[in-house]
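Troubleshooting entry. Yesterday's outputs looked truncated, so today I'm pasting the complete records for two proteins to confirm everything comes through intact. If either block looks cut off, that's the bug. Protein one:
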Amino acid sequence: MRFCSLGSGSGGNATIVEASDGSGVSRVAIDCGFSLREFELRLARAGLCCDELDAIFVTHEHGDHIGCAVSLARRHGIALWMSRGTWRAIGAPEADGLLHFARDGEAVALGRLQLTPYTVPHDAMEPLQLRCSDGASHLGVLTDAGSITPHLLAHLQGCQALLLECNHDAQMLAQSRYPASLKARIGGRLGHLSNDTAAQILASCAHAGLQHLVAAHLSEQNNSPEQARAALARACGAAPDEIVVADPAAGFGWLDIR
């Protein structure tokens, strides 16, 4: 199994997860938070085209995550997965028979991949994050959550790779020029994970078999790669340069999970 990012931040998010065996490959795009043209360009940068995607999974309805997902699915005939709450939040569109509803804890089989959605605290209608597996390896994906829950932690245990939101440094957010209402939303229980909160999650999930750790969804105004890396490194005892930071424009290249 391997995964890469096409970009991660307030301007748009998309992660590609792939599993292969001797008979073929299965691929899913987790979020498509860009215009259709931009998504196609970024996907090509990863060496793929849209027709090579087997499914799209939308975590929630915010524009930097859902982006072109519906139009992409329609244009290329790709299966589209999301929660019923997300579907309602975007106006309950028709999807030409491609739409499938995901539910907390109900595994989704997509060829060689299995996706297990889990609920998170975020200011969306029915947000879901994912644990992805090929049967041997596991990737935990967690962005757009405001606080820690036992349910969330349970779904991230034992993963060989973790993609964790490190949206903001709490002090930088407090000192920023953002209006008080926006600061309260971002830093609130249903907002986004700070570096310190992400580090607490990591401390509860880190183990000797963790191969890849990615800091994602960093705020360009209220965080820095150095601060995110330092917080996560302290939590798991890794060297800061061992931690990958997802770039808003470039994402990150393919990471293999063995």
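Protein two, checking that the full record survives here as well:
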Amino acid sequence: MSTNAPTAASQKGHPPGLFLLFTTEMWERMSYYGMRALLSLYLADKTRGGFGWNDEQTLALYGWYTGLVYLTPVAGGYLADRWIGQRRSVLIGGALMMIGQFLLAMPGLAFLYAGLGMLIIGNGFFKPNISTMVGGLYRQGDPRRDSAFTIFYMGINVGAMLSSFVCGTIGERVSWGAGFASAGVGMALGLVTFFTLANRLLGDVGKAPSESVSASAGSSGSIVNDDDSRPLTTEEIQRIAVIVILSAFVIIFWAGFEQAGGLMNLYTERKIDRVVFGWEVPTTWFQAVNAIFIVGLGLPFAAMWTALGRRGKDPSSPTKMGLGLLLLGAGFVLMLGAVNQAAAQGKAHMFWIIGAYLLHTMGELCLSPIGLSMVTKLAPKRYASLLMGIWFLSNAAANKLAGTIGGQASKLGEYTIFGGIAATTAAAGLVLLAISPVLKRMMHGADSVTSEPVAQEAGGDAVAMRAAEKPTTV
């Protein structure tokens, strides 16, 4: 191809395209998490122009919205793979989400639903394709891949941190509409950054639909033909099966983790002592705690995975994800302490929830970026974005489930809800650790790494090289 992605500038560092995708994702997540921090508070508010809904109504809509946000990436990934291409999909999705945020800034139920609808559709185009492009910067077996997704994941959380301090503060202290509008401005900044620098820093990565890339690359000799007419091999089927199996565990993880924006957000507002030296910390600022921990811990985790990989001691992806579930369960044990203190003293100390977010963050770093990286390793090229969308489908089910679970707290009590989540996630983590050797064998070497980084070549897509490479034995 005539315009290779300039990704091999440094064998020890990362390609510059990673940092463009990092920045674009940062602004998009600032937009998403900004509105997420405000949504449940806005729906429940009775005095500042909100809707005054009860907790069950609020968390039900919250669950539907966050669930559908992760459902549409299945369609968005499919359209990108076959017709649109990942790069155009990111631009379309970003534009729709920007419009959605500005619609939310308008008062009234009609604008609420219209804005949420635009965000849901836009995220379907955006989310699976920008994640897949990160994988497209690296060849199969490159030990930098897991650390690249962890760095990319830090972009998500820098945006989440900005969202709480900017959108959350504006929404709580100025008006809900101004908070949503500031989220729209963040999305606009991401769009401008991506549109301006994509050709220079990404080259051909994400330009053409995957089907077109497979056919044209096969004729040039750099990538074998991976068109839809070739049946899936046994190894490919087993790798896809691993994605599906791990998706079930991911549902359990996110159903607990996503209480952060719903039940735990409302709990912080009502039952956490937020006063520091006579000043009350805004509720939405606690939504930044997870992001702050991600930014602080992301690079150490990325360095740890890379160092272990180069020494041949990197845990398998299923093992890392099992540890993530155990850490999430431990975080909810701390929430039980908060409930007990609030029952005895009226309010719980904020260190309980901060500690819970720390453990949740460590679990997230073991599961979420590793899962994104794993999908790009396992997915056959022609189904790369589609399978990334299916991966996000597990998030859709989890977010809807999270809203349903959180909505039961008014009937069952927070202690029962937090305790049930702690027990379920811990049990799931132990099961996943037990079956991880079987899952690793089913991955047929796709989780293995080489001892040194592999330079990217023409075509720009790591998954596109997979069909031309013989899998390593485990």
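Both blocks look complete. Sanity check on protein two: Strands lie at 272-273, 275-276, 279-280, 348-349.
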